[in-house]
């Protein structure tokens, strides 16, 4: 998938996650496994797209040899594709992605639902990448 397609896919995901957030409460998430899965998968896929974009840019523009997803994001900062302030938020997202993948049974529903309050960070990522390419 091309970079612009990935960015559009991410924007579409955020629209869907916003719809989910506006249509379900924390109690709904706790009571209905389907809602929890929607939030988990929506966040996971969106974070994975951010990682894919970051690593693709790092590789395409020869920004360095990252050994982790975190390093892909740090290379975007060094290459002036991403602000330092936003990179810290994106790196936190990578931490959530790792929890979703490796410790899915231990994520607290309240914390999971609270991540829906940070959807604007994804849009900031899209805008910074678009303006710096």
What does this structure look like?
The protein is mainly α and 133 residues long. 78% of the residues lie in helices and 0% in strands. The chain has seven helices and no strands. The model has no long low-confidence stretch (mean pLDDT 94).
Please name the fourth-level CATH homologous superfamily: bsu32300-like
Query: What is the CATH class designation?
Result: Mainly Alpha
Q: In angstroms, what separates the terminal alpha carbons?
A: 17 Å
Helix content: over 70%
Low-confidence stretches: none
Strand content: under 5%
| Number of helical elements | 7
CATH architecture designation: Up-down Bundle
Shape: globular
Cα gyration radius (Å): 15 Å
Helices and strands in order, then pairings?
Layout (H helix, E strand, L loop, with lengths): L2 H21 L2 H6 L1 H28 L8 H10 L5 H19 L6 H6 L4 H14 L1
Helix pairs in contact: 1-3, 1-7, 3-4, 3-5, 4-5
Which structural traits does this protein have?
133 residues, mainly alpha, Four Helix Bundle (Hemerythrin (Met), subunit A), 7 helices, globular
In short:
The protein has 133 residues and is an all-alpha fold. 78% of the residues lie in helices and 0% in strands.
């Amino acid at each position: 998938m091309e970079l612009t397609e990935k960015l559009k896919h991410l924007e579409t995901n955020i629209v869907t996650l916003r719809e989910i957030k506006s249509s379900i409460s924390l109690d709904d998430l706790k009571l209905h496994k389907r809602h929890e899965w929607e939030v988990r998968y929506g966040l996971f896929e969106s974070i994975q797209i951010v990682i894919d974009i970051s690593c693709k840019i790092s590789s395409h523009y020869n920004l360095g040899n990252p050994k982790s997803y975190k390093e892909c994001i740090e290379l975007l900062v060094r290459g002036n594709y991403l602000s330092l302030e936003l990179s810290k938020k994106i790196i936190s997202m990578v931490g959530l992605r790792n929890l979703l993948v490796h410790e899915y049974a231990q994520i607290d529903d309240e914390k999971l639902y609270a991540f829906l309050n940070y959807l604007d960070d994804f849009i900031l990522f899209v805008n910074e990448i678009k303006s710096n390419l």
